[in-house]
Design a protein that fits this description.
The protein is mostly helical and about 140 residues long. The chain is about 80% helix and about 0% strand.
């Protein structure tokens, strides 16, 4: 199940995110909802929620980069939506926030505007931006 399932979640999330950005208004909320649905359905299938969150976040960041969208606002919206999804996936809220920060950071370690991403995240959930920085720095060191 491992890699092929991972690729499937990333691919489907990426494609849905790209489609969600078409049109104009409301795309940020739509992108966050796509990621929430991917996480909830992936976790319901029996996969570890942390893995599903990391993969969905990676797919979302890939999709946003492909359509040349800035990440701060969608990243903060994704954090907020996945905080809501903690209960749906029977996950601890702090774990969900940590996994989401990790997924976003590891998918975007060298993007311009990463401080803006951290600040946008911290506006929604104070302290989670620090987690984003920590995971981003870990990813950079491992490259």
């Amino acid at each position: 199940m491992g890699e092929s399932k991972r690729s499937e979640i990333e691919r489907l999330t990426k494609e849905a995110v790209i489609n969600s950005t078409v049109g104009g208004r409301g795309w940020v909320t739509a992108v966050a909802e796509v990621v929430r649905m991917a996480v909830v359905s992936g976790a319901a299938s029996g996969r570890p929620t942390r893995e599903v969150v990391l993969e969905a976040c990676h797919g979302a960041v890939l999709g946003l980069r492909l359509v040349d969208k800035d990440l701060p606002e969608p990243a903060a919206a994704i954090i907020a939506k996945l905080a809501e999804a903690a209960e749906q996936t029977h996950s601890d809220l702090q774990d969900m926030l940590t996994w989401t920060a990790e997924g976003l950071a590891k998918a975007s370690p060298d993007l311009p505007g990463e401080n803006d991403i951290r600040e946008a995240i911290d506006e929604k959930f104070l302290g989670v931006g620090e987690l984003f920085d920590r995971f981003r720095d870990e990813k950079r060191k491992s490259q």
